[in-house]
Amino acid sequence: MAEEQVGLVLGVVEPATSTQFRVVIDEDNYLQLDDLVEARTQVPKVGEVHLYGLVTEVAARYEGARFESDMFLIAEEGSLPAELARSASVQTIRVDPEIWVAPDPGEPVYRVRGHSRDKALYADQMGRRLPIGFARDGDPIWVDLDFFDGRKGGHISISGVSGVATKTSFALAFLRSLTAHPDVLGPAASNVRVLVFNVKQEDLLWLDKPNRGLTDEARLQWTRMGIPSEPFPSVSFWAPPRGAVGMVPDTDSRTEGVSPFSWTPREFIEMGLLRFLFTETGDFRQQLTFVEERVRSQLARLAQPVEGRDGVVRIGTRLVASLADLVDVIEQHLDPPEGEPDQSWTGRVQGGTAQAFMRRLRAAEHRIGRLIRADGNRVDRTAEAVTVVDLHKLHDFAQRFVVGALLDEVFAGKEKTGQRLPLQVILLDELNKYAPREGHSPIKETLIDIAQRGRSLGIILIGAQQTASRVAPEVVENASIRVSGRLDAAEAERAEYGWMLPSTRMRARLFKPGTMVVFQPGIPAPLVFTFPYPPWATRPEEAVEEDPFEGLS
Question: Span 4-120: which CATH code?
Answer without folding.
Answer: 2.40.30
